[in-house]
Amino acid sequence: MTIKEALTIKLKKQNLILTDQEMELLLEEAKLIGTADYDFDLNGKDVDLAFAGLLLETVRVIEVKEDDVSIKYSNDLKTLISILYTKWGLPDPFAPVVIKPTVRQRLIW
Do 92 and 82 touch, CB atoms closer than 8 A? Predict the structure, then answer.
């Protein structure tokens, strides 16, 4: 199986379809060779991160309005992206930012 085929399979699982030009652009931006053999140990991380990058571009909320009716379609891919980033030991882009207070000790006497 080639890298391009592996990415195509991952995209089909999420019901995402890319044209050949879009797939070539994705591979080029990720610096992957689409015709190379897919080996999870060698290029699994790069393929997953290219897939996550594409998912980040598709995360959105679509709202359709007509007269006084509004329908919102949510594309909840955030969980999948978080799992991929955690899998490779990278910081989760959707994790809540917790600001830790700085404690300073002041001696009154």
Answer: yes
